Amino acid sequence: xxxxxxxxxxxxxxxxxxxxxxxxxxxxxxxxxxxxxxxxxxxxxxxxxxxxxxxxxxxxxxxxxxxxxxxxxxxxxxxxxxxxxxxxxxxxxxxxxxxxxxxxxxxxxxxxxxxxxxxxxxxxxxxxxxxxxxxxxxxxxxxxxxxxxxxxxxxxxxxxxxxxxxxxxxxxxxxxxxxxxxxxxxxxxxxxxxxxxxxxxxxxxxxx
Length: 208
What we know:
Immunoglobulin-like; 29% strand; single chain
């Protein structure tokens, strides 16, 4: 139905997109200022709209101007008050439905649902949010750390710049270690390529 709404903004019953902000209302029991919230209904169309606000639990809320009209390309504010703040309602999700119709018609052209929730405390919510963010940051820091330690050798060979020098030195040292030591008589390698034990130790040290 949502895709259908976006695709067909013709004046067909139920298909007209409704623009309202916000689509979620959060009331906090310990913060009086949040007990009154404002919904803004926008009318981007060339014709006036009538609107009606319905609610799943009308006994909990007072809606100022639950019905009214909004002129073309204008907006209107709808004030919603929570009038029954009690602990048993914490976390319960209520729904409002905003129905719009053209002034000359009775049929609802479009509708939008808004969810409303009552929470005990804004501070508590903020703390939970901060803790959650902290946990996520710590987790990210850990995963980045593990990733780096796992990928380091690979990065060194793959990336360009000074690390190529390290790789080259490594190859030279490995080659040096593989060459015969001075004093080994039976060898296919020419004598000038024979290295002393000390030279091999240096190569092994550099490689390490």
